[in-house]
Amino acid sequence: MNLKKHFKMFIEDNFHALTHKNFRYYWIGQCVSVIGTWVQSVSQSWLVLSLTGSPFLLGIIGTMQFLPITLFSLFAGVAIDRFPKKKILLITQTLSMLLAFIMSALVFTHSIKYYHIVILALFLGFINTIDMPTRQSFIVEIAGKEDLMNAIALNSATFNLARIVGPAIGALLMAYIGIAWCFFLNGLSFLTVLCGLIYIESKPYVRKNFSNNIFKEIKDGLKYIFNNSVLFETVCMVTVIGIFVFNYNILIPVFTKNVLHQQEKIYGFLMSSLGAGSLIGAVMVSLRSKSGPKKLILFGSSIITAVMLIFIGFSRTYYTAAIFLVINGLFNIYFSTTANSTLQVNSKDEYRGRVMSVYSLVFAGSAPLGSLFSGYAADKIGSAWAFVLCGSLTLVCVFMLMIIFKIRAKPAT
């Protein structure tokens, strides 16, 4: 009995977001579904390389998957605040499940072509344009502002535990029973999210007063971000990291094949190493989440991440690359969790959908630029030097932004 009581106290003290029933339903569903997403992600990258042998064409897939977010995320933000977020997520998660089953059917029947993957990636991009900012802003409704950072950290822990388990499962499935099963299992994993959403009983925040002019609504949201220095600085930092850092699905498979001269198992191991570091980071953030997001962590984690990218570029053994990926993953989570919670905590309810749509735009919507850039760089100068280039550009941009923010903060004389 005492053990049960101590465990309950430990959860309440350190993972207090789980005391909310609605968040527990959502989180448990995510625990399964995100593993499936990572299984498909690593499998899709390997499938494209197997079909084409081209890092640049692999980069095109990333571009197609995130291009809709780049183009339409701002419009999505206006719509999200006008409808119950639970209903939106039920629709987007169902559509994502159907796409995974279609992909598995094409691979099972040996009908898969490169252009099929491009089209399905584009469709998934349109779904994620609505799904991503909706999920981000839904967390406040099911966990509350007070436990928001803890909830975000727990979601990150789930995501990054999946980043460890998912690539490992994907690599084993590809090696022993076939790549088609990776896509099929991902489709099945969406059922857990849908079940969790059905059981959630929340009081949705829906804007009642809004303009029918969607461009006016977008302009109002952008003006709100620009005039709030905390939101503006965070968005700028996320843009840099989104373009130059989060290109692992492009660079790691190419690096594994062309520099380390390894196959699926080592590719899965390297992706899992990145996830292991991220999981450690997510748990660490969760345990100290009561202190709230801090600006120093935002800048410090971005600098360390950039340095680790450079070190990866100079690695020539998979175990040294894995060590740097662990460190990189840890500070990736410190950065992304701090940025996400900073934006949500400092946003008014009536602007949160639009603020998080801008976050999705610069975090995921910048991926087409990042995918094209990293894919092109890997094609022309090799994946090792592409890592070095991305890390160096990140350092330059971060220090330039620090100077700009300091000048901008000075009062006019």
UniProtKB/TrEMBL annotation:
Its membrane topology: Multi-pass membrane protein
Annotated InterPro entries: MFS_dom, MFS_trans_sf, TM_effector
Pfam families: MFS_3 (PF05977)
Gene Ontology CC entries for this record: plasma membrane
Key words, A-Z: Cell membrane, Membrane, Transmembrane, Transmembrane helix, Transport
Single Gene Ontology MF annotation: transmembrane transporter activity
Descriptive protein name: MFS transporter
